[in-house]
Design goal:
By secondary structure, the chain is an alpha+beta fold. The chain is 37% helix and 22% strand. Bound molecules: zinc ion (ZN) (2 copies). The site of one zinc ion has 7 residues, from loops.
């Protein structure tokens, strides 16, 4: 949407929530293509486009709603923001209905309004599509799944991680190598969609088995939330599982 359309949409929503309009000078990096996650500038202050729809940082008192049940005003705003998605809301309910995936939890109202895809199933599909199109664009539709172990260079800490990368393990973990020795257990290449689904399934299983582990240096590393601890038996099983699924 272009800047004029975006301003109109924001104004309509602000009118529902606030008594005073935003009077800021608005600009964006690309005024012809404003997306949910675009940065916009308001009299010098920066905000994400989806946050601005819910109120201007300069002109409106933005409160963090803790409510999780649909109110009349919430439903009106939600229709303006997520109208194209066909969600159904019920006053007083803490659920909403996704036309493709049925009842979903509303959660925090403000977060619902500012998320790109509030239905968690739609959101997983969006992330999956994004990953696959990135693989198609830059990696011939392929990706790598790795299963590696980490051993601290300075303490007795050790743990495991499964993940995806387009390049080599050295590239993927260049920030981690200061603290850890990394030993590959499996590294396989395959069709991005299949490998993506395989990785998701493994993460799901790790979560269910409550094996997740946060590394001591986690604040430094992307993907640190995907680390885990496991017995030798479990490691061997997982290793064979990945090899079987990728060869
Ligand atoms: Zn403003
Ligand atoms: Zn959905």
């Amino acid at each position: 949407m272009n800047l004029t359309q975006f301003k109109t949409k924001a104004q309509e929503i602000h009118n529902l929530i606030y008594t005073n309009p935003c009077t800021c000078e608005i600009s964006a990096y690309n005024n012809n293509d404003i997306k949910t996650t675009s940065n916009i500038t308001l009299n010098g202050s920066k905000m994400k486009a989806n946050e601005y729809l819910l109120g201007c940082i300069n002109c409106h008192p933005i409160s963090n709603s803790t409510k999780s049940q649909a109110t009349d005003r919430f439903v009106q705003v939600a229709h303006k923001i997520h109208g194209d998605k066909g969600y159904l809301y019920n006053l007083g309910s803490s659920n909403f209905i996704c036309p493709s995936h049925g009842p979903q939890t509303l959660g925090n109202l403000r977060n619902h309004l500012s998320s790109i895809t509030p239905c968690s199933v739609c959101d997983s599909l969006r992330l999956r599509d994004r990953y696959i199109s990135q693989a198609n664009k830059s990696n011939k539709g392929l990706t790598n799944i790795y299963f590696v172990s980490f051993t601290s260079k300075t303490s007795s800490e050790s743990f495991f991680k499964v993940g995806l990368c387009f390049g080599s393990l050295e590239d993927r973990f260049k920030d981690w190598l200061v603290h850890y020795d990394i030993t590959p257990i499996v590294f396989s290449t395959g069709n991005a969609a299949d490998i993506y689904d395989l990785e998701q399934k493994i993460h799901q299983r790790i979560k269910e088995k409550q094996l997740s582990y946060t590394p001591m240096n986690a604040y430094n590393f992307g993907g640190a939330s995907e680390c885990f601890l496991a017995s030798e038996e479990c490691i061997n099983k997982l290793k064979s599982y990945i090899i079987n699924k990728t060869t």
